[in-house]
Design a protein that fits this description.
This protein has helices spanning about 50-55, 70-85, 85-100, 105-125, 130-145, 165-170, 175-190, 230-235, 235-240, 250-255, 260-275, 280-295, 300-320, 320-340, 345-365, 370-380, 390-410, 415-420, 425-430, 435-450, 455-470, 475-485; strands at about 5-10, 35, 195-200, 200-205, 215, 225, 260. It is mainly alpha-helical.
């Protein structure tokens, strides 16, 4: 018999696409699944320094990877108050959602302008006959004071202007920034409002839950109490949306609209700002993670969060920054587990998490944390849904971890341990050609060593077990035949 050489499929790279309207994730193999000779995982360690590469990441007071600019006490206090409908807390979250890092003086200036607006309007609002009149008065005044409403129906509307902070700088606004500001102003008078989300658009629902409500299209000075009926979508919606630079919205979109509490609207504002072209790097990750802290129950927010982690894992993997990836694993694996528990039924989220974990497992294996890598594989590999896009590639990435461990043990002459390394997933490994080949390599080298040591019985047993485990493997069958002919 001759010594057999192990092989390994190249690890697959990530391809992640982001559009300006939503965060979309596509994970795929680049250039096919080629085969190379195996190199021990430890030889791929670049000895990167996490403190230099990602200073402050994964080591703050929040369960986040990107370092946040707020203290946990301040941030969680604001979130708690915002969930109770507090106007000032909602404005604080809206300012954070703008992502432009206003200092204390800048925030105070915005708060003062809002307070002045409210104080000036309070006498008229207080004497209004009912909530509907109060809401209308607030709405028209908001457009006149903040949006240059005297310029016409759309005032200073600008499709890309999603920052609430920029309203106070320029008077420009779009659907999400104007909806967020209107929610803040109405909550200052304890009026009942909620955000409404449809594809590419946001507006406000005004009125008590379960009672008579109206829709408020905050992009237009005439948008208070817009009737979204079939006639509107047949006759006016096409012009209405095109004048705002939006894709056509249908009656079916409206029927499937998502109605969210004010604090959840702020979280979606954070996501919306995160995907703007001008938002990059730390700001994008920070905004998405803040949204997840504000609204941990939202599947849309959690999908975005998992996708941004996948982008970061890809970036670190391509830089061969395995030690930084291992630090990211330490910081974020509990959060990934929480997301999987809470959203186990969401296939898209589960698929993204498993891709992230495949990169974590590889990094742990490289930096010498093989037991943790194996534990990740044990948990993740059986849950790979073969209906997922690129599921075969994902499964192969997890099998690569097992092959690394198996072949590393083989080089140490620990053949029994090598086989044990894949025993929990033997059926999956057998079904994949490279993994099956490497099992055969272990058995044949085991037999070679026994034969050279004069242990013919041990050699025969290793080859017989090889044939039993891999009945369709020609290497095992041929090696046993050659052995028997001697």
């Amino acid at each position: 018999m001759t010594e057999q050489r192990p092989v390994h499929r190249h690890r697959q790279r990530f391809v992640v696409a982001i559009t300006t309207s939503t965060l979309a994730l596509m994970l795929a193999a680049c250039g096919g699944a080629s085969v190379r000779h195996w190199t021990p995982a430890s030889e791929r360690d670049s000895h990167d320094d996490p403190a230099a590469l990602r200073p402050g990441y994964g080591s703050g007071e929040f369960p986040t990877w990107w370092p946040l600019t707020e203290t946990s006490a301040d941030f969680y206090s604001r979130v708690k108050k915002a969930k109770a409908g507090d106007a000032q807390a909602l404005l604080d979250l809206a300012i954070l959602a703008s992502g432009d890092h206003r200092d204390a003086d800048g925030r105070r200036a915005i708060q003062q302008r809002v307070d002045q607006f409210i104080a000036k309007l309070r006498p008229d609002v207080s004497t209004a006959a009912n909530d509907l009149e109060r809401g209308y008065l607030l709405y028209r005044s908001m457009h006149t004071v903040f949006f240059n409403g005297e310029k016409g129906e759309l005032g200073s509307y600008k499709l890309e202007q999603s920052r609430v902070t920029a309203i106070f700088d320029t008077g420009r606004y779009n659907c999400i920034s104007s909806a967020m500001l209107f929610v803040v102003l109405t909550r200052a008078f304890s009026l009942p409002v909620r955000g409404v989300l449809v594809p590419t658009h946001a507006f406000v629902e005004f009125g008590p839950p379960g009672g008579k409500v109206i829709d408020v299209e905050t992009t237009s000075i005439d948008g208070f109490a817009v009737l979204h009926d079939e006639r509107f979508y047949k006759e006016a919606a096409a012009h209405w949306t095109s004048s705002r630079g939006l894709r056509p919205i249908t009656i079916e979109d409206y029927r499937q609209r998502q109605i969210v509490e004010p604090y959840r609207l702020m979280a979606m504002g954070m996501i919306n700002q995160a995907i703007q072209p001008e938002t990059t790097g730390e700001d994008r990750g920070r905004l998405i993670e803040m949204a997840a802290l504000v609204d941990p129950e939202s599947i849309d927010v959690q999908r975005a969060r998992m996708q941004i982690y996948a982008l970061e894992a890809r970036a670190l993997y391509e830089r061969k920054a395995q030690r930084t990836l291992a630090k990211m694993f330490d910081a974020m694996e509990p959060e990934l587990e929480n997301v999987m528990l809470r959203f186990a039924a969401d296939s898209e989220t589960m698929r993204t998490v498993r891709w992230i974990e495949s990169v974590f497992a590889d990094a742990l294996q490289v930096v010498g944390r093989s037991r943790e890598a194996a534990a990740l594989v044990d948990d993740a590999l059986p849950s790979v849904d073969m209906k997922w896009e690129d599921s075969k590639v994902l499964r192969q990435n997890f099998l690569n971890i097992l092959s690394d461990q198996m072949l590393t043990l083989m080089t140490k002459k620990n053949y029994m341990g090598a086989i044990k390394a894949v025993s929990k997933h033997i059926d999956t490994c057998r079904s994949e050609s490279v993994c099956a080949h490497n099992i055969a390599v272990v058995y044949i080298n085991w037999a070679n060593d026994d034969l050279y040591a004069g242990n013919r019985q041990g050699a025969r047993k290793a080859l017989q077990e090889c044939v039993t485990q891999l009945p369709d493997n020609a290497q095992c069958a041929y090696a046993l035949m050659v052995f028997g002919s001697r």
